[in-house]
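Workshop exercise sheet. Pairs work together: one partner reads the sequence aloud, the other fills in the structure field after running the prediction. Swap roles for the next sheet.
Pair: D.N. / O.F.
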Amino acid sequence: MGNKVVVVLYGLLFLFIGMIFGIILIYPQALNEYATNQTKKLPLSEGTYEASVNIVAVSNEGIGVVGKGEVEIKPGKGRVLLNTNPFVEPDTQYSIEIAKEVAESVTGKSLAGKDIIYSIEAGEAQLVGGPSAGAALCIATIAAIQHKKVRSDVAITGTIQANGSIGQIGAVAEKARAAGEAGIKLFIVPRGQRKVVVYEKKETEKRGPGFVFRRIYYEPKVIDLNEIMFEQYGMRVLEVGNITEALQLALE
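Structure field:
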């Protein structure tokens, strides 16, 4: 009886060990297959795809400028090209690579074998810097792939991250003012940037016998861009955290 129990226990032990080795050998393969299925994208049909979007940037002089970003997708060699007027800084090139990758993930379409040509027009500015056009160009790329249009009364600023999140940028107040002056009705900004700190000029004066002492200083003040811009230009300023939220607001 005792020998039979030992045999059964050994049998169960070998069975358990066999299951463990099976999991070790098979499970990684299953994971790889699952990951491959999750990232598998369908090829984009033949043809030319185009879309445009309003871009708000800051020139090298620190002035807000409203321009136009355009994307054209056509048969080619898998190149991502940037055509600019004015010149842009190198990090803009990196941002369009991310914009293209995120657009592929959102739409489930592969842009392999396509040339994607991005164009940025920014009026009389001589240089536009920074990756703040990334989110806008990503939206335009998605719109082109899906044969949709971006609203002409909407502008967006923000970086685009590989996970689809929209990152913060600088000079939001200057960009908002430029957008308002250009007639934009909805300005989309990264989450946490609707409220900004501005510095108000203050002056005090003290008079004494034969002299006047004036002191000029700047006092920080938090303002809500949505309130200020709506009051001055009838423009709303809304925050988004990722490309999905931005698409819901920006596409027709």
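Discussion prompt: The CA atoms of residues 40 and 135 lie 23 Å apart. What would you look at next?
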